[in-house]
What does this fold into?
Amino acid sequence: MQTKFKSGLNLFFVLFLSVFQIVILLLLTSPIFSESKTGLKFGALLLIIDLIIFVPMLVFTRYEVGDECLVIQDWPLRRYKIPYGDIISVEDGDFEAKNKRIVALSMKRIAIGFRKESVDKNGKSRTQEIYIYISPADIDAFLLRLSGKMKIGEEQAKEKAAELSKKQEEHLKKKKQWQKEKARRKAEQAPEIIEMSGNVKFSNFTEVTQQEPGEDK
It folds into this structure.
């Protein structure tokens, strides 16, 4: 059964690439441009852009439904591996999302939503919801293949939820023990209060003032 799917191509994107290639060819071969240093430099710049961006985009954009995760790739250095247990939704291509990535060469696309855990600078873990827009040429076959894997992903999600719940319980237990220990130390460091019983009487006192010289005592 098919596991690797190429991206569909938008007609306007194909026309744009065709015109782009013709412009590069004219700039590099036509005497009008080849005799001009500016024309040659501009043609070389367009050729570099073509080799770095457009050619890799056409060659490497693909989607693979693997045994354990969905692999999405367009450039050699941009590759997403999404475990099926992390997938939260499969939406239509018109779905709008804040945190999204576009790995599609056609407007006929779908949005794969998944959760990604990361650790910030303070060492705290956080969970992000990311949506990747893809455009398999055969969307029906892709979704059929993906749905079978997502059933396995549901079991993975349940196992992961149970693991997280266990970790949370352990964290709460440690937190309670720490609070008890803190209260005990605070009680030990508190000053001792002496309670006095019965009535406390204060005797009268006579104020003695210093006399000036010559005054009678």
In short: The first strand starts at residue 4 and ends at 6. Strands lie at 4-6, 62-65, 69-73, 79-83, 87-92, 100-103, 110-119, 125-134. The chain has a mean pLDDT of 81. The two ends are 124 Å apart (CA to CA).
